[in-house]
Amino acid sequence: MSRDGPPDGSAPAPSAPSAILHASCVAAQGPEGRWLGALILGPSGSGKSALALDMISRGARLVADDRTALSAGAGGAILAACPAAIAGLIEARGIGILRLPALATAELALVADLSAPSPARLPDAMRFDPPRGAGLPDPGLPRILCAGLPGAGAALLALLRAGGRRHAP
């Protein structure tokens, strides 16, 4: 997102979605006050909504649950939004569907992947590859394997608040 976006720090309205993924998305304000999103991927039942709720309980905001629409943003960014029919809704397994305040859109800063555990204590950087043929830019988003990782919600939220950038050892 460019710096001349809306004054509230939110991302500009997305264009028509290029892809809709089976994924959740939450966002937190980064160092410049912009809402930066974490796209949460994983197989059905892997805990995408549970991770999103954990991050929301720590101060993140819901963008989308179950289906996330991705579109190209300014400056090579990828924007995440929620299809209108499920906007503001999130599933809490064993409790039901909850309605929460939600952001209309956020610029993606990282991808949390629940399909596999992290292979190392300090893993090498991995990149998210946008869906082929969707016309999305490739901003080099970090892809973090975090299935079963204790404290993942807190760590991912801290990473968003730091602008999505990890310190390289």
TrEMBL record:
- Residue stretches making up the HPr kinase/phosphorylase C-terminal domain: 21-100
**What molecular functions are annotated in GO for this chain?**
ATP binding; phosphorelay sensor kinase activity
Q: Which UniProt keywords apply?
A: Kinase, Transferase
Query: What are its GO biological-process terms?
Result: regulation of carbohydrate metabolic process
Q: InterPro entries given for it?
A: Hpr_kin/Pase_C, P-loop_NTPase
Instruction: Reply yes or no: does the keyword Transferase apply.
Output: yes
Which protein, by its recorded name, is this? Answer: HPr kinase/phosphorylase
